[in-house]
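During the second half of the funding period, the structural biology subgroup turned its attention to how the target accommodates small molecules. The most pressing case was iron/sulfur cluster, which had performed well in the primary screen but for which no bound structure existed. We therefore specified the complex as follows and requested a full 3D prediction, including the ligand pose.
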Amino acid sequence: MHTRVLEPRQITILTTSKCTAACRHCCMNSSPERSDTLTWEQLEKILSQAFTDLRLKLVIFAGGEPMLLGNTLYKALRMVKSHGLATRMVTNAYWASSREHAQLKLRELEQAGLDELNISSDDYHLDFIKLDAVRNAYELALTMNFSAVVLANCFGPESHLTPERIRREFGTADMKLRFDDDGATIENHKQKGKTLVVLSNSPVQSLARGCTEMKPSELPAALTDSELDRIGDLVGGCPWAIRSAAISAKGHFVACCGFEVEDNPILDYGSLDTHPLAELVDKADNDLVTNMIAILGPIKVMRLLQRICPDEISFPRGYRSYCEVCFDLVSLKQNRDALYRHMDEFVEVILAARNLVKQTYLDKGVREYPPLRITADLSASPGPSKTTPIADWRG
Ligand code: SF4
Ligand code: SF4
């Protein structure tokens, strides 16, 4: 297995684009009308290659709604577990409308080898999934042997189902918050023999379907230019690009699950039906624009384009997060064209940064490294000794 600078450490299997819900903020554009779903044959082939070609620690099953896969999901969980990797599933809990059914499904998940159950619930989900179903799934999951149970809540200024309300209504003394008031990640450690219970409290973002279906008043205020630049400096490169790669519901190898990037000319590297996984991971590792996002971060790339070619690009709105900037960077054709026209100007800094990562970390056998610090004159230096807490901004 050769060493890559951008090497997946965890992978999200976007099992299906179909969902029982069609939340207005869905960054994956999932809905009951969509139907792309990975087959067992595809999953078995992709996972077998991942076990051989990657050094993964965690496999996440998400979607759409992964529970729609039924036995295929359980077979895939068993396969991952038998290779000693941790497993997580992200679900909307539609299957928990009665306590009896919730109990049955949770037992099946537990027996298949699920470690972490992650249940999403907020105002947008409540249009489709009752809070009682979430409560059933959550309360019964706490009686089982999952290593972690996470309630994921996105909130905005008009939200009724807020983290405070969830804590009030669902709260156990042990429920930890994932983010502090400044949006920095709180390190929560699992205690031996106890289920870690976390409330993931992240501000809602405007991505994919959310860009057209959410009202401006539902969104948190956009960051000022200086706040955005401060985050760009603090976080550095996107720590999720390739390091937290995804397999799309059509079986494509894609950069991440920040939003639906399947078929995006930059962040979709091709079909695993026709190419081996190792080939597509190498392609991603060597892709210049992906490296710009992974090493400089989308905010710095936006700023550099604004300096180099202000008349050729469009960043038409205020931004709250890395992924929102990235969405406009790679989704708007005008910006992609500008990236392709001017990417030669980034070659030197990217090669220097990659060499620095090799010398400082990879050649010494250290495979996980923090984002680099890239200064205004674009020279690179090793980053902080620990990943900055806010690097987990994506929620
Ligand atoms: S946010 Fe989750 S539950 Fe809602 S439509 Fe998207 S995938 Fe389905
Ligand atoms: S900024 Fe977001 S969308 Fe872009 S590569 Fe990183 S995780 Fe993916």
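Two results from this model are relevant to the next phase. The longest strand covers residues 148-155. The two ends are 31 Å apart (CA to CA).
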